[in-house]
Amino acid sequence: MNGTIFPMTRIFHDLAGARGRFGPAALTIGSFDGVHLGHQQLVRTAIQRADQLGLSPGVVTFHPHPRTVVGDGQAVPLLIPVEERLAILADLGVSHILVLPFDTALSRLTPEDFVRQVLVEALDTRVVVVGNNFRFGHKQAGTPQLLAALGAEYGFETQFLPHLCYRGETVSSSVIRGHLRRGEVSRAGRLLGRCYAVEGEVVGGQGIGSRQTVPTLNLAAQPELLLAHGVYVTEVKDVDDHRAWPAVTNIGTRPTFGGDSVTIESYLLASFEEPAPRRIRVEFHRRLRDERKFPDAAALRSQILLDVSRAKACWRRLRALKTRAQSK
Asked: Which tens digits make up the pLDDT trace of 264-287?
């Protein structure tokens, strides 16, 4: 819906809706999948420049992911849904967001046409903040040097930020995807600036867990789940309420019981009272182990109790670290 209003942010979903209602703007441009630390740096720089010049701080992002259209045609597994991307960007403080539908027509715009039609004529852009590896226009022919030249021609300022590194790692969506595929949720979370999470409807299990092992809350698995199978230390949050529980979460196919479909099962480490949550968000803190097949339910239950013990110890450390950080 064009002009959708967050508390302090207006969201537009096509160029026609944003035309004449977006600028004059200081903005940043990109897919922003995950809105990781590098993306946040770009957004904050654009906001700072907007404040200095009395402009509207904005973001231009794309959906679907450009590689889906100009690459091999396969969907790019997103780190977060588009709705969550917009919510995070809004929380960072931008006043306007344009979600450009990335289609064949947009992909064929020359760099000059993209700048003139989108940035200048539609959005009244006065400042553009992007990374120093930014590419745009047909076949990614637009370079930072060309953007700077076009900015001089059309009267907008350009800023190019170096690629952000954190603890010796380049911060990028592809690097984060690699961590998640290997189950490295702690490393992924450091680059995201928050825990990686999945969210969805609570679904009924097969009853096996509650009868033979331990009771769980089950989350509907997404078709393109990025995270490696295994057992994780997590926090489960009720999306519709303020309740939250430390938990142990298993992602996998339940090989001990001959399962073949992926499930996300969370065993809560704190007391639980009805009503059961309708929708939950599972935040991943640490990986405990691979998923594996056990000889019987009793052996699996013993392992789960060991997992619970290790998870509780992990939560004690996490709380101690949080307390120390808050006392500084």
From this structure: 999 999 888 888 899 999 999 999
